Amino acid sequence: MAGDLLKDLKRRVEAIIPQEVNVSFVEFEGPELVIYTEDPKKFADNGDIIRSLAKDLRKRIVVRPDPKVLIDPEKALEAINEIVPEEGGINDAYFDPDTGEVLIEADKPGLVIGKYGETLREISRNIGWTPKVVRAPPLHSATIKNIRDYLRSEKDSRKEFLRRIGQKIHREPSAKDNWIRITALGGCREVGRSSFLLSTAETKILIDCGVNIGSDNNISPYLYIPEVSPIDSIDAVVLTHAHLDHAGLVPLLFKYGYDGPIYTTAPTRDLMVLLQLDYIDIASKEGSKIPYSSAIIREALKHTIILNYGEVTDIAPDVKLTLHNAGHILGSAVAHFHIGQGMYNVAFTGDIKYERTLLFDPTVNNFPRIETLVMEATYGGRHDFQPSRNEAESKLQSTIKRTIERGGKVIIPAFAVGRSQEVMIVLEDTVRKGMLEKIPVYLDGMILEATAIHTAYPEYLNQSLRNLIFHKGMNPFLSDIFVQVDSSSKRQEIIESDESCVILATSGMLNGGPVMEYLKNLADDPRNTLIFVGYQAEGTLGRRIQKGWKEIPFSSGGRTATIKINLEVITIDGFSGHSDRNQLLNYVRRMRPQPSKVILNHGEERKCLELANALRKKLKLEAIAPQNLETVRLV
Amino acid sequence: MAGDLLKDLKRRVEAIIPQEVNVSFVEFEGPELVIYTEDPKKFADNGDIIRSLAKDLRKRIVVRPDPKVLIDPEKALEAINEIVPEEGGINDAYFDPDTGEVLIEADKPGLVIGKYGETLREISRNIGWTPKVVRAPPLHSATIKNIRDYLRSEKDSRKEFLRRIGQKIHREPSAKDNWIRITALGGCREVGRSSFLLSTAETKILIDCGVNIGSDNNISPYLYIPEVSPIDSIDAVVLTHAHLDHAGLVPLLFKYGYDGPIYTTAPTRDLMVLLQLDYIDIASKEGSKIPYSSAIIREALKHTIILNYGEVTDIAPDVKLTLHNAGHILGSAVAHFHIGQGMYNVAFTGDIKYERTLLFDPTVNNFPRIETLVMEATYGGRHDFQPSRNEAESKLQSTIKRTIERGGKVIIPAFAVGRSQEVMIVLEDTVRKGMLEKIPVYLDGMILEATAIHTAYPEYLNQSLRNLIFHKGMNPFLSDIFVQVDSSSKRQEIIESDESCVILATSGMLNGGPVMEYLKNLADDPRNTLIFVGYQAEGTLGRRIQKGWKEIPFSSGGRTATIKINLEVITIDGFSGHSDRNQLLNYVRRMRPQPSKVILNHGEERKCLELANALRKKLKLEAIAPQNLETVRLV
């Protein structure tokens, strides 16, 4: 069947391209149709061929050289170095004879690519190999290096996997019914363990698979109900972003027998691995149940297919997926699905920020079509209005100033990913502009590593940061005010020193991580300050301290001690990566086209219901807040 | 496991009963715990033992003699005939050595049972065998005879089946989650193919499995979705009543691999078999697709466990079922479920009549507890008020009179089950009281057979009919105005005769059946009258004629002809077996206790939505009208 389909596609390719161009064979690899040719130069010479093939065949097309025409790697590397200007900074090049690709790691990928891809095409013409360029990160990221090494070592089984998935995606659909449904598996009327099943009679897609960190029970989405059984009946997993409440239990799927693809952005893939490894590391240190091994994290990684924002991609015979910027954290995406014969469109926001932040552009709310929107409601409550970004910045500034004046230290618990970098950019900017004296900003936990991943994907940052980095050569993440804490002796030194400083440490909700060490030792000194810059979920220590608890029981070396909370506690809301109520309402109000139905999740029950009410009354939309385990039919 | 449980139960039985009473062994048979004993007389002497065992063990208890103590069947029969008064009219007795039961078929079962079961106990004391009494129907029903013969022939495999189901019902529950959900598989926002899945983490129960007769597509409930896959993951099927839109596709479940029990009343079981056989017979005559064979209907029959109204029965470790009178047709039931640890209660009305009719008492609306009510909405629309029963009767009377006066014939298309008997009772009553001249009432299709089944279960009729039959010895169904049509020559004779008459014939919505033959031949004569007494679903010929179509294309002997509708067309609403809007609202308003949530089904979309609206506004209840394929969570 797949063989016949490929034969037919080869014939259609040959009918479209100029007669003198040879096609050796065609092959599905994941969502892409790969054309192998002895004449890669001729394809490379004519950028239009691929575009017109993609348009005619309605598939994503990749052209690769037939292995026969590849020149010797050593000679090829010489040629590459001749073609690319020295400022491109080529660090490394890896040749993969199976795909005919050479992966070039460069300081400035733009110079390897050239205007409209001209340099890349020249390389291709000269060496036969298809060049792919990745950025050499300015901060070294062990995560990224490990991921790249691992994927290289697994290239054979990955190729086999991509071929299998490709054939599955491009099969003839067999279902007769046309319904489309959404089942809430987790994260509805609650924050945590986000997971939806989007299903048609043909296809099952899991959107996110998060963990409920703050909860003792109800940790996992409902993965054992008939709708998702057996687990390998799922066709694809799509991840909106890397935070654990959205991607923390993805490896569990593989542990239970899932063997299909995960679609997400490259930064999400890398951040996800970082956060998952940290999650099981913390669990093991705390002696709590470890849900999966690092081997399973690698298994999930091997099954990840990365997509760029805006790429329309077949992920099933009846479903096309497009990811769009969500403005929440690096690589975060709104997942837009265009579904089958019924021509129905539904988008899942994941977590969204509908406001320009220091890091990201505001989330996208224009789609070719959209009938149903599934939207987060974290701050959807009647009174959930956040201060402006300016107010938040000046409150942070004045709080730090006040703390310095009384000789205290500032602890900022933060998610390693997102809030930390946002706060780093504010601090760097404030210090650089002389509005705050230059004090050290200690980064503890995985914050530096997460920052390194940010520097590897500057194209995911907002326009002004990209300008600063690409055109002014100024990368604020590289400022010398940031000091990595890499040992417990260093931590002790910071705690004991008299010097004022800012400590940015994980976890963000005070449920574990190095921030606990600082809190234990600095909480009883009223000169110090604890600043919350992110959402504190119900059930976490962060939420308790926010509520005004003054004594916190603590187990330490087997004994239970009590920490007195004497330090100043401040919440600064404006740094949230979430939209506030106004932003959520405006996001929907200004959405083009208008959806007819909005399904709310990712918010406490009251907030979901209040936002649904507002959407019905103010925008005259059908708005519902399903419970977990409920199924809503769209068509 | 089951063995241990039974050992333990035997010990508990022995601890409760008097020491001198022997217990040979105990066994699960379906939902019942059967105690085999060498001393059945001692149990029989003391009616309280069984009641107190049932109370203490919280199980339905049946006592049977140990096979060792059974006396010779011939001698036993002599003894029975001596004990029972001759007026009891014992026709037949069948001894089953496996169960130690003797099935006694009598004209007057009451005389075999005796006051408070005294006669039955005396029989038991004398012969060892456990007597069970069934009524010898006053009209011979081939259906009932075939069913009884078949079940006797299958007693071994049925015993094995009951043992297996018994052990499954009484297993230790293993699920940890406590949720309860309802999934709409069919019959929501439509009339036809009624089917719900009621599920907990432990148990799946299918309520009804109907067919959409009026539809070309969407004939079947959604039985292929993950929630009910594989089909043998269903633990039990519960049927509210026998109509095809509720029970027509039950055999399909067995065709696809279901092997579990069907719970329903005895009349529903018999009527269901009658209607299913007729359904496949019509399909075969029309050359349309036959969904299942008669062998599969028998398979379903073998799996049916009958329950009386009001019997609380374990059907799963976490679910108890009680059936209550629904007032709709013979044996129709509201299915009340009492669920597990959460102590949650939900009732499914099936189709209900909340008004005393000529045949039945009004449906029950008092339950020990109820949180959610799933209710039909056939006549739930804003303007769906029906005339009173009296108005309907006098309209029927005057219409027939008018037709007789002009020398015409009256055609009444009717469901064989329900409306036919209702109309028969009105006609018999009107003629007997001299308010209508004595004209023949022809019964065509399965109406006489369905009526025979009604005469076999007079205890399911209303109080005044029971009085008439039991105490006055007057059974209106036996009146000589009713004439069975049993051949096409008889049919032709009726059509060609000049004599006025009433023709009561199936099907009720003019989509097939013998009524078509009458319509074809009598429709163009304006002296004749067509009277609709039941609901005409969208898409049926009945609905089209109601809407005023004057020409009906018809295929006859390969050619397409046109029938002119010149006869008088009258709709008389008051005979409906469904509650009208007022009755539906009153049914909920007067329900004790009040449910907190009402889920509506079995009505066109607009009617479901309008009734939901009324329930919210007038009764301040949460009311929803889910779509097929949606899942609602109760807990």
TrEMBL record, chains A, B:
Region Metallo-beta-lactamase C-terminus, residue ranges: 577-635
GO MF annotations, alphabetized: DNA binding; RNA binding; RNA endonuclease activity; RNA exonuclease activity; zinc ion binding
SUPFAM superfamilies, A to Z: Metallo-hydrolase/oxidoreductase (SSF56281), Prokaryotic type KH domain (KH-domain type II) (SSF54814)
Region annotation Beta-Casp: where it falls in the sequence: 383-576
Beta-Casp domain mapped to chain residues: 420-545
Cofactor(s), by name: Zn(2+)
Subunit structure: Homodimer. Interacts with RNA polymerase (RNAP), interacts with the Spt4-Spt5 complex.
HAMAP family: FttA
Protein name (database record): Transcription termination factor FttA
Organism: Candidatus Syntropharchaeum caldarium
Lineage summary: Archaea, Methanobacteriati, Methanobacteriota, Stenosarchaea group, Methanomicrobia
